[in-house]
Amino acid sequence: MNKNEMLIEFGSDARNEGLARVVVASFLTRTNPTLNEVEDVKTAVSEAVTNSIIHGYENEDGKIIIKAYIEDRMLSVEVIDYGCGIPDVGKAMEPMYTSKEDKNRSGMGFSFMEAFMDELVVESCVGKGTTVKMKKKIGTEQEKY
Amino acid sequence: MNIYEKMGDTVIINLPEEVDDYRASMIIQGTDEAFADGRIKNVVFDFEHTMFMDSSGIGLITRRFRDVHDRGGTVSVVNVNQRMDKILLMSGIYRIATKLAR
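YS: structure for the whole thing
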């Protein structure tokens, strides 16, 4: 009852950003989250999936996998791609840093994930792909700013 | 609803319900012609229908800010709900964009 898990795989098409958000938000429902918490998770998932599409696969075809797990009211989400990987994760996570200035990227993707989730871990291997692991405790409703 | 409305040297961009990377790219393409003649000085982003935005929306606002800033133009946001205000505040975009009263 207090545990649940899901896994989806979809193509790296920008139109699937919406799909990914809605699926994870729907999965989260049974933890009885506030509207704010749902929106926080949707934003974080959207950022991670967008990164996979734009940076991981550079808008080429590829597969993105989302694994999500709930235990009590702790949500864990992993967004996995098998794209080009990130050479310097520390640099990529610096606020305002973007490798694609010309593509109208704000460089705030990881900052948003950090702000809206409680935990963020990024594992990446050049040429193999990137996994973004995020956690959020539902029911704490702590404002971070 | 048109993607944008032009009034003199001002463009009002009507944002959709969800502003993510997919929609932000479409909005940039769809408003390029409005900025092509170089007369536009002011940009207003109307959030009336917007319930979701991620950092792609910040990229969009920043892009249009760069387009008009050198001409002494301004960027504003209007009809911002509580969630959108949180996103805009967090991003620091209020340093370059003015929030107009509803």
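YS: worth flagging: Chain A has a mean pLDDT of 93.
IM: good catch. Also Chain A has one domain: 3-138.
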